[in-house]
TrEMBL record, chain A:
Protein's UniProt keywords contain Transport: no
UniProt entry keywords in alphabetical sequence: 2Fe-2S, Disulfide bond, Iron, Iron-sulfur, Membrane, Metal-binding, Transmembrane, Transmembrane helix
Transmembrane segments: 12-33
Superkingdom as given in the UniProt entry: Bacteria
Pfam families in the record: Rieske
Species per Swiss-Prot/TrEMBL record: Halobacillus campisalis
Keyword Metal-binding recorded: yes
Leader peptide range in chain numbering: none
Record domain Rieske: where: 86-159
Listed name of the protein: Ubiquinol-cytochrome c reductase iron-sulfur subunit
PANTHER family per record: CYTOCHROME B-C1 COMPLEX SUBUNIT RIESKE, MITOCHONDRIAL
Gene3D superfamilies associated with the record: Rieske [2Fe-2S] iron-sulphur domain, Single helix bin
Automatic annotation (TrEMBL), chain B:
Pfam families registered for this protein in UniProt: DUF2487
Protein name stated in the entry: DUF2487 family protein
Highest taxon in the source lineage: Bacteria
InterPro entries: DUF2487
Amino acid sequence: MSDKQRVSRRQFLNYTLTGVGGFMAAGMLAPMVRFAIDPVLKPSAAGDFQSVASVDEITNEPQRFEWIVEQVDGWYESEVQKTAWVYRTEDDEIVALSPICTHLGCTVDWASQEEYPDQFYCPCHAGRYTKDGVNVPGTPPTAPLPLFDHKVEEGMLYLGQAQDR
Amino acid sequence: MQWTRKDLSLYIKEKEYIDTLIIPLIPFNPASDSNVTKEAFQRELNQLFTHLLEKEYRGRIIVSPEYDYITGSNETEVRRINQWVESFQSQPLSHVFLFTFDPKWKKWEQELKGQLLWIPSMNERDLHSSETKSFVKEQVSQISELITAYW
């Protein structure tokens, strides 16, 4: 009649203890797993893009754009102004160059020297770069101007870190 | 370049390229209640100007530690400034500019061994307002034109 399976005391205790033990084990393991995979989940600081200009403003002629980033530098937390020379190439690619001369760090200017109307010119030691940022041999700089990482979203240009070439 | 360990160690290596020095001359008089804020403002403004100039031309200009003196003691300070200039000139720094908002230096200009760069100050105001910023930028670009004319 009553062939309903009876749960013995031993079985009941087994089930309960496995259940509770399982929860405890999970409670201990979860933070460990989270720690282990944390570096993967962390958003990379290098990927910080800042909106700089509207895409329609960018022409074939390099223009100077400025924006502000928060920077922590040892003791100081400050807002630092960054600048970039931005233009569009013939093939509609956007190019964003850092204005920091690779020689000793002065700020370069586009076409500021009458003799070289289509080059970047460094006022300190007459360093020159062609429009794509490559240093002109025979002038002091030894490397091309760094390029900013860039992306375009909803008609705005975003710039990230400057990458040496 | 700033007067810091990092910049100066680069300077030692690249001496041949850096030939210009700016010494900020900053007056102050702690005894005068009416002028302390004005002078403090001029000091901030002076730091801002030299900072902007340095940023633009850091590969050729070096900014010296600031030269402070009690307001009005210009006559007696001439000798000490010249000492500063002379010791800087033991390095190959051929252009030494003394940058100040203190008009009293104009009188002693002939006796100073550096090139006096005096510009009129402005009234005390917020240095971070956009109006002040554009004004300062404009002034800085004119001063840099003046400096580059010596190169």
